[in-house]
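Protocol step 4 of 6.
Sequence for PhnA protein (Pseudoxanthomonas gei) entered exactly as in the expression construct, tag removed. Do not edit the line below.
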Amino acid sequence: MNVRDSNGTPLSEGDSVTVIKDLKVKGTSLTLKRGTLIKGIHLTDDEEEIECRVEKIKDLVLKTCFLKKA
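Step 5 output, structure tokens:
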């Protein structure tokens, strides 16, 4: 599997990424602000999605088009 961020940089298990756009999280009142650092990502079966933990949210799934490698 070839998972890449918004700039085309390859991502691997456990990498740190940065959010490049403000994202509203469905089901909560939380908004991930641009520049938020997410540590220890987990790759999924889909090349366009990753799993991570942010603040109080466990198992959050994000699209790689909104992330860049930190």
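Step 6, annotate. The beta strands are 17-19, 23-24, 31-32, 37-38, 42-43, 49-54, 57-63, 67-69.
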